[in-house]
Mucoidy inhibitor MuiA family protein (Streptomyces viridosporus), 519 residues
Amino acid sequence: MSTTPEPIPLPVTAVTCLEDRAHVERTTVLDLRSGTQRLRLGPVSALAADRTLHAELTADHPATVLDVRIVRSWTPRGPRPTDDDSALRHRVTALEEERLALGQQRDRLRARLDALGRLAADLLREIGEGAGFGETERARWTRELDRVDAERDSHGERLRTVEARLTALVAELSEAQRALDLSETELVELVGHIELTVRSEAAGPAGLRLSHLTPCALWRPAYRAVLDGDSLRLDTDAVVWQRTGEDWSDVRLTLSTARSARAAEPPRLGEDRLTLEDRSPAERRTVHVELREEEITDLGPAPVPGLPGVDDGGEVRVLHSPAAVSVPADGRAHRVPISSFTAPAGSEYTCSPELSPLVHQVVRFDNLSGHALLAGPVDLVRGSGFSGRGTLGFTAPGAPADLAFGSRDDHRVLRHAEETRDTAGITQRTVLTRTVRLHLSRFSALAEHDDRVVVLRERIPVSEVSAVEVRLREDACSPVPDAIDADGVVRWNVPLAPGGRRTVTLVYEVTASTKVTGL
């Protein structure tokens, strides 16, 4: 067996991005010799999962893959930059070398000044001792003192110049280092290569396809909705993050909601015993009821706190990028276009005063993209430009979807509720009467002259026991509700002129028998 001295390039050609990892596929053409040989391919990401490594020969060539493995190596960066490094890195290296040289020069000057100071002290001591013994060498003493003072002044000036340059150099080096940290990232310490052992019956070219899983990659759906009159254009994008250590250049990108890390074993079934027992006389005489709040939800998984996952409606969804894309390994968000469609849209101004006093514009349209719309954020664009960000829920292909385009500042809704309790004379039944008044106002600009229909929604309780009855008093309601559904949601279509005001009244009764408690 022989190992190729130079690694054979193994570029990334296709990527399937999952919810929290990526399935990377690489292809190349090998020039095989007859016999068994070991090939070195790469480099590849050192984060590749060894257990998921799979290689197969695709061309019609009599060859067999005997072994495939990933080998990681670490090559430290040299002390000096190479020709492939940027000009900024060369500048940082030059500044560091100059700072080192100036630091050494400063130390030498300080040592020289210290020696000159000791020399001056020795000379003054010699002059004192000589004068005490009656020696008079005025010319020599003067010449020596002038020479020492001149050298001390010269070296002191040079030291001040070096220290000033060193201070400016440290500031310049700090700015250059900060710019280098922002513009460039350090290379990954570990570099991976693929060692492939192949046995070939004859010499010739053979295609190789190699795949593996890699962490540090994920994607989430995102949308852009443009409302233009009675039509809506919805652009579907995929936001991709990856920091796998290698760039994805011109790859076929597939987005999948498959969760490969989640176990597929069914849960264990525990024993659940059901028993029947007779009610006591006190329990037969009373019926305990309570008011319960329930949220009306559509089909789909329940939301969970924290980082949201990909809501696929319980079924694996696969989306494809229509063109080859490039995603650098910088850990930043990159938007990849997936699809776009334009559909007729109808607008409705709606308000649920019990939840919010704001009047919202809701746009309804059909999903004509040909694939399911996964839950994700939506950038809302109207005639005036970007107007905010909303949320789109999971929508099946061809199903209707609702998209809120924000609230209207020229509408105001006030809600007042009253409640009275009474007991009927003969039956002794408890009657709970609730009155809700909604005051709706419209403050419009001078250019608006058309009426606007505002849909108001209120709710009434829904009884689940025969001992409690809920009745809507249509004779006391003003105006009479346009519709009421099985969930107890009452709806009015209220036309409102510019500057107009309307008051809507809702009255309903809850009647309970004498055996009912807890109401």
About this structure: The radius of gyration is 41 Å.
